[in-house]
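R.M. (postdoc): so does anyone remember the format we settled on? I'll just put the structure tokens first.
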């Protein structure tokens, strides 16, 4: 029988559109990955009665409820009170919770607020230590439903989910496993057509400009080796990762394996490639430097692009992309140099070079590979795609050295 979950978030800032609810998306994906079906996620205003009613309804219709936010010490943090109201239980002092709150402030040479209620938990609740922030988390059972209360700060929620919830929730589906593949260069429809009827498992997809996730779900504790091998063979032209969908992480892994380094010269992406590469822990071992070269002067100054190429071919051209990659590689003395130059829009395009025209190049000082891209979408979509295309091109060059 499939375990059912409801995610309950709260906050007027969410309902007003001031901030996006990344927590709900994060939790939905994590629960889906371990075989738990999310019936719905709901957002309610900072009103104690509304939160209490939502908790009662969710607990009656699901096996698991995860409530996020409202555990701080401001007037609109009402999760504890709403929980006590919903399940007719008093709030009592929790010594472990008080110890955590006091330790948090003591470490920062601050005094806990006199009227703080963060150490109060519903009677019978289980304290969940929060090493990532001040507000204690907790859980409690109501009839057949297990309810978790987590802080709304994303870094705290994600840390607590990994620390407390996922190890506990996996027991609901011990006979369940999932393997993720990262792909690039083909859309969701193409990937689904290639895999349709080929694999004895359930398949789900998530498409983005930075890579497509293909998840294989198995009704067993261990995935089928033969199915995984068949999937990898089918996806081979587009495959860059197994177990995750982060192109920068895969590139970094190959660079480390080959004891190689990389530097980047970026025009239209404004440092997006460099930021993506260095978002991976340990990237300092292989990423040497990045140059954001918007003006022609900067392209000449930092990457030794010739004035002849700029005047005769234009900044957005094959010739300039090649010189940018070769120039940054030589300047940084890195194993590889990568470059992007293009027109991200919404303005700046022409009949000959419309918005979405992008040139990328990858060079190791001996051989340089170039690609001319024609991309569509918003400015962010075009720059995301450009960043992914140049990293995938580098990944392909690195993979060739493995063969």
């Amino acid at each position: 029988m499939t375990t059912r979950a409801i995610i309950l978030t709260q906050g007027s800032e969410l309902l007003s559109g001031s901030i996006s609810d990344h927590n709900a998306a994060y939790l939905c994906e994590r629960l889906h990955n371990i075989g738990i079906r999310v019936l719905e996620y709901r957002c309610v205003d900072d009103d104690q009665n509304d939160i209490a009613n939502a908790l009662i309804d969710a607990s009656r219709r699901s096996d698991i409820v995860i409530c996020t936010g409202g555990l701080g010490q401001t007037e609109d943090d009402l999760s504890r009170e709403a929980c006590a109201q919903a399940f007719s239980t008093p709030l009592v002092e929790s010594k472990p919770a008080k110890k955590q709150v006091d330790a948090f402030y003591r470490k920062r040479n601050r005094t806990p607020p006199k009227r703080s209620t963060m150490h109060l938990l519903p009677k019978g609740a289980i304290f969940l230590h929060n090493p990532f922030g001040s507000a204690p988390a907790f859980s409690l059972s109501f009839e057949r439903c297990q309810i978790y209360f987590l802080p709304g700060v994303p870094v705290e929620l994600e840390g607590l989910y990994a620390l407390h919830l996922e190890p506990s929730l996996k027991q609901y589906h011990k006979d369940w496993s999932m393997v993720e593949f990262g792909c690039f260069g083909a859309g969701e429809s193409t990937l689904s057509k290639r895999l349709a009827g080929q694999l004895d498992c359930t398949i789900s997809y998530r498409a983005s400009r930075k890579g497509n996730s293909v998840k294989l779900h198995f009704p067993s504790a261990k995935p089928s080796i033969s199915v995984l091998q068949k999937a990898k063979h089918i996806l081979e032209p587009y495959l860059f990762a197994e177990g995750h969908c982060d192109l920068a992480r895969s590139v970094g892994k190959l660079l480390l394996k080959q004891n190689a380094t990389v530097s980047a010269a970026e025009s239209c992406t404004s440092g997006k490639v460099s930021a993506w590469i260095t978002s991976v822990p340990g990237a300092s071992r292989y990423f040497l430097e990045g140059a954001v070269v918007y003006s022609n002067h900067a392209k000449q100054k930092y990457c030794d692009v010739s004035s002849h190429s700029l005047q005769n071919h234009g900044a957005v051209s094959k010739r300039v992309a090649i010189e940018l990659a070769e120039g940054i590689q030589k300047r940084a003395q890195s194993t590889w140099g990568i470059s992007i130059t293009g027109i991200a829009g919404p303005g700046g395009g022409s009949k000959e070079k419309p918005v979405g025209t992008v040139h990328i190049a990858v060079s190791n000082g001996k051989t340089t590979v170039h690609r001319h891209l024609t991309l569509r979408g918003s400015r962010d979509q075009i720059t995301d795609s450009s960043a992914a295309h140049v990293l995938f091109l580098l990944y392909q060059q690195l993979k060739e050295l493995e063969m």
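R.M.: ...and that's the designed sequence above, right after the tokens. Also worth knowing: The CA atoms of residues 21 and 231 lie 33 Å apart. The first strand starts at residue 4 and ends at 10.
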